[in-house]
Structures are given as structure tokens and as C-alpha cells.
Amino acid sequence: MRLLVYILLGVFSFLLQAVFFPHLMPYQYMPNLLLMWIVVITLMRGRYWGLWVAIIAGIVQDVVISNFFGLYLLPYILIAYSLHNWSHTIYEEQWYTTVGWGIGMSIVCVFLQALLLFVARESISIPLYMWYHLWPSALINGVLAFLLHKLTWNLEAKDEYIW
Amino acid sequence: MFSSEKRMITTVIIMCLILGLFGYLWKQRTHVPFVTTTIESITTPFTYGTAKSLEGMSTGIAVLDQWINEAATIDSLKEEKAALLQKQATYDELVAENIRLRQLLQFKSDQTLFDMEAAHVITRDMGAFTDTFTIDKGSADGMAVNMPIVVPSGVVGYISDVYEHSSRVQTILDPRSATGVIVQRPESRVAAILKGNGNRPSEPQMVNIARDSDVLNGDTLVTSGYGGIYPKGILVGHVLSLTNDEEGFVKTATVQPAVNFKTLEEVFVIVRSRASEPGKAELTPKLIPQTQRDEVQGAKGAMQQ
Fold first, then answer.
1. Closest Cα of chain A to B128: distance in Å?
2. Local structure of residue B185 (DSSP, 8 states)
């Protein structure tokens, strides 16, 4: 039941990311909902599920939404893998911690993307790229992280209550 | 007996006189103000207060009655208003769509040199290095790779991937795109390449322009036709600013695209073009005597032997 809910939420998030957000948000305000899902799932359900979400979201974003293979997939996998290690030292299962991790991982993701593009010899300046793609979208990501935290928390609590 | 009868008669007479006097006074009441004024002064506050209270009560009852009656009316009016607002929003949307589609239709009929197919934008890829979107027409509808995408305001991009029922369009804003452009001003006609800007996706750049080339701020750029993807003469944008390269040999122009990529909903795919391709410069490999090596010289730099 819970898995089905998560799958439906994933489909809904994909539609939001691919259709609604680009239509509603100006370029620099474009949030990354799929990344926030990875952060929240990794924090709340652990590395195994976090990596699964990262792989699916990365492939969806690289192949279905965009057409630059690896630009999202690689940072997502690295984030899901590392976040689990880091989060044990700081994570307190409070919404503000999730928001902090959400904003932090937004910065890490854009940095990794910029680094990847730089290594691929694309003509970008890493600081300029990061500035343009982080401000203010990282803050919007924080708001999304808060909403996803509450949603996941309720889902998990309800599921524990039922079973 | 006599005395009692006499007293009774006297009493009756006195009573009659008193009644007569009262009658006379009543008749003459306007001429006897000390009576009426006094009575009025005493009674007026009471009568006024009572009348006002009754008036207030009746007003209150009327208001309450009206409020109760109107409460039901307000509810139905609210529902009616919500329905009307919804209708208005639908109407506005239809009007906007109508205007947009009329513009597209007009554009399509104006472009006699191109066979065009209209398509809807489905998903968009924004917020990272790439700048692409998908349309709802694919190979089943005759779409093919490298077909140019345009809208009435200018050039959008080209089809980079084709699937059966959808296609991916790589816009001119994508840093991987390179569009051949030419300055429209007759005295300039400088040709160069427009590339997407990875750092600032909304500001593509016309790169590698020779430093002494005649390119000015505000110049209009159109497709040059070189490269084989875009037909010649489609509006691309305007030059926003010019910056010299660090080495000082070339300059770069930042371009304001003519198309508002944010609001793209419908686009045209140029399926076939009857426009003549620009004449290609004749390049013949020449042997450079000094080096004795085969090197191809461009049309401008060809050495005359």
C-alpha cells in the first residue's frame, strides 16, 4: 500500500517537474522536486531506498525530461550514497534538518553538475553557473523539502499505525 | 328634606357650570396655552420615547426579516458568482487560445515557402545546462531529425531526437546548439555562429566575430541558412551587448532571442522548405608552396597562385 502511494507520488512529481514547474516558474526559480525526494527518502528510509529513488529519478530526468545522460544521474547517486553517511551524525528527524539537508544537497548537486560539465570541456564558469542555477531555486527546494518531509512523515506514521 | 333637595340642585348646577367651564376651556384650548403647553411638555418625552422605541423595534424586525430572507439569496448569488468567474476564466482562456491560434494560422499561411506542421509542447527541460522540450508529433506524423522549429516571433530550435509519437526539440538556447546567423543590416551582413550560454541560459551568444566586423548593439540577427538545418532569413534575435575577447582577436555579442521561450505552447515544424539554399563558396584544395603540405584555404583566405 505504502509502495503504491510512493509510486503515485513519483508519477505526480514527474508531471510537476516536467510540465507544471517549467510552465509556472521563471528559469532561475525552477525547483528540483526529484532531488528533494531523494534527500527526504534517503534521510527517512535509508540508503537502499534513497539509491533506488536516485537511479529512477536520475534516469527519468536525464532521458525523459532532458537529453544529457549522466548530468543528473551521477550527482543523484553520489548524493543518495553520501547523504546516508553524513546524515547519521546530524539528522534529528526534524523538519528544519531536512530543509537544511535539502538546501545543502541542492548546492552539492549543482556543484557536481558544474564540475561534470567542466570536465566534459563545456564552456562554463563554475561560480557563474552555480550562482545562476542556485539562487533562488535552492531556497524553493528548501520549501519543497519541508513539504515532502511532512508528507513522508505522515505516510510513515500512518503506515506504522495501520500495520 | 327641603335643604337636601336644595343642596342637590346646587351641586348639579355647580357640576354643570364646571362641565361648561371645561367645555369652554377645551373649546378655547389654543387660546389657553398654559394648559395645553404644560400637558404637551409633560407627555411629549414619553410619547416621543415610546414612538422611537417602537420605530426602532419595527426597523430591527424589518432588518432581521430582510437578513433572513437575503441570507438564502446571498448563498445562491455566491454560487452564481463562482460559476460566472469560472466561466469568465474559461472564456479568457479560449480568447487567448483563439488569438494565439489565429496568429499561428496567419503565420502558416504567410509562409508560402515552407510546409509546416503545428505541434504542441508537452514537457520542458529547464533549470540545468540543457534546454530542450518535447512536442506531440513524432515519426508517425512525418517528423525527422534536424527539422527546424519556428514560431511567428522567430526561430526556436531543431528536432534532435524523434520517437514514434513525440520528438525532442533542442532550442537555440542549449549550449550544445550552434545556429548560423547573419546580421540583417544591409551594410553589415556579418555571418557568425550563435551558441547557447551555459552560464546564463536566457542570453545566447554570437561567438567568434572578427574584432573589426560591423556588428552593433541592437542589430537584428536572422538565420544565415548555412549549416543546412534552418532556412535563410528567419528572425533569431537582437544584439544586446558586445564584448571583446581577452586575446583581442575576436568579439562576442550577447543576443536577446526574439522568441519568448517561457511561454511556448504551440510551435511549427518546417517539414519542407522551397527556399533556395545560400550559394556555397567554392573551395578547392590548394597546395601551399611554402610548406608543401595540402591545406584547405577558405574562400576569403584562399591564396592566389
1. 7
2. S
